[in-house]
Prior knowledge:
The complex is a heterodimer.
Chain A: E1 3-8, E2 16-22, E3 25-31, E4 37-41, E5 55-57, E6 60-62, E7 69-71, E8 77-79, E9 88-89, E10 91-94, E11 97-101
Antiparallel strand pairs in A: 1-11, 2-3, 3-4, 4-9, 5-6, 6-7, 7-8, 10-11
Chain B: E1 7-10, H1 14-25, E2 32-35, H2 51-54, H3 66-71, E3 74-77, E4 82-86, E5 91-94, E6 99-101, E7 104-107, E8 111-113, E9 126-127, H4 132-141, E10 147-151, H5 155-166, E11 170-174, H6 187-199, E12 203-205, E13 210-215, E14 220-224, E15 229-232, E16 234-237, E17 241-243, H7 246-250, E18 259-260, E19 272-274, E20 279-283, E21 289-291, H8 296-310, E22 322-327, E23 330-336, E24 343-350, E25 353-359, E26 365-373, H9 378-390, H10 396-400, H11 406-411
Parallel strand pairs in B: 1-2, 1-7, 2-3, 7-19, 9-16, 10-11, 10-16, 11-12, 18-20
Antiparallel strand pairs in B: 4-5, 5-6, 8-17, 13-14, 14-15, 20-21, 22-23, 23-26, 24-25, 25-26
Residues 10-16, 35-38, 45-46, 48-49, 81-82, 108-111, 129-130, 156, 244, 247, 276-277, 294-297, 299, 323-325 of chain B line the site of flavin-adenine dinucleotide.
Amino acid sequence: MPWISACEADEIDAEDVMRFDHDGHTYALYRSPDDKYYATDGLCTHEQVHLCDGLVMDNIIECPKHNGRFDYTTGAPKGAPVCVALKTYNVKVEAGMVMIEIV
Amino acid sequence: MTQPHGMVIIGGGIAASRAANALRDEGWNGSITMVSDEPHVPYDRPPLSKTFVTDAPSPAPYLADIAALAAIGVDFISSNAATRIDPQASTVRLRDGQSLTYEKLLIATGAQPRRLTLPGSESARVHYLRTIEDSLAIAEQLKPGAHMIVIGGGFIGLEIACSARKLGARVTVIEGLPRILSRGVPQEIAEVVASRHRQEGVALHCNAKITHLVESDDAIGVTLADGQTITGDLVVAGIGAQPATDLASKAGLAIENGIRVDSYLQTSDPDIFAAGDCVSFPLAAYENTRVRLESWRNAQDQGVVAAANMLGKQQAYEAIPWFWSDQYDLSLQIVGLRGAQDRSIRRDLGDDAFILFHLDPAGRLTGASGIGVGNAVARDIRLTEMLIAKGVMPQDDVLADGKASLKALLRQPG
Ligand SMILES: Cc1cc2nc3c(=O)[nH]c(=O)nc-3n(C[C@H](O)[C@H](O)[C@H](O)COP(=O)(O)OP(=O)(O)OC[C@H]3O[C@@H](n4cnc5c(N)ncnc54)[C@H](O)[C@@H]3O)c2cc1C
Ligand code: FES
């Protein structure tokens, strides 16, 4: 599966999220408080809202629309109204770039 | 005779639905019976003035289907109202004559639209908006060129106005007070909403007193005190809602602008709990000021907390009020409880999005109101909610600076 270079590692603040669009698809990239990087689909599974406007606290992304919650490290739903998991993607950092494995 | 029947929930809205799920999540494995007087499984109301109208025909916003309810063992009875609660016998009588015995009861009967009492308001051309049927009946008439007259410049009236414009209908909004959204929304934000509606072609009449309505063969007229009559195809009245408390008051439960519950959402009867739009409850973060909210998240969260307490978990409901509204590409979010003496500090977030923070005379953050395209204000509003819960007294310049991190403020010790 292809690895795509998404952004520079320091473009995302610690404990924050950034939107990344590629080939007509939206992803959300996360940098955890302990400086690990993660990626999920960019739209909430409840009503297709962009998660990049949401709030990251520890390993949770909270949707900006109705405060549904996901663990962005696993994609698991963690609070109503969301009940469907987010798809997650493999991420690595190479030469200062965040790379995401598109499947 | 009847034996204990476990948990009974009256109502089929979001509060009832979340409560049923939460009872299972909290480990209850006895019976759960949910009774709704609507002919539907529980559904979400917020889309009824928004996408359910503009995207019609679209699937109804059901929260679960019958199979999903059955899968968690909820015995769901629809189209059948609870007509009497007997707290001594712990029974609920239904319209069809059957009687349910409860161990614990949850009342989640919600609210009903306030009705117009003006002469002429019984006309079939006058609509209210609370249910799927209401929304469908309005949507059916919103053809290009049709004229909808909205009475009341509150959230529901303005949202349906926006949906009608999207569908090409003409819209007039009549508000009795000097401005729209006077309940709970600061003037600065209401002005943004008002000018956007005008830009989109909505005729807004504030300070307008209606004397009566007149129906003719093919139209309805709304006559104002100045003598002018506005004629349209339909009227939608959005003039507030009243808590559905009849059942509770007939059962002798305490009522105070809604069914009175304590911070555990327990009514004056220890076996009966209540949640959602039908209750008034003490707000812990605001010196236990008693409020009744009409807010989706409040109904959802109260359903969950009530369920826990029905199982004896003693969980206090300590949320901060929160509400959103969508109009055109704008989203408005309001958090907290603004006091009459509060002053406001403005934070600009770019692209015309801004937030007004509200601070009480002692400097404590009490609330925030924000508006912007999409979800531009969402993150800061959510952080404000946490700052309020923490009782923070922020510096004015930090609040005013759109680049200053509220998260950092939240993480500051002390
Ligand atoms: C058009 C519209 C748009 C909205 N938009 C927003 C929004 O954008 N943001 C927001 O925060 N909030 C919004 N709200 C408010 C939100 O939908 C309500 O706060 C929420 O629905 C309250 O849920 P509830 O379960 O307490 O009550 P309800 O949803 O009113 O449900 C109560 C249910 O109980 C049933 N019932 C009543 N009496 C009986 C009885 N005796 N026996 C059996 N069943 C009974 C009722 O028929 C109903 O099905 C909107 C509301 C409407 C109507
Ligand atoms: S759109 Fe994300 S929680 Fe509703």
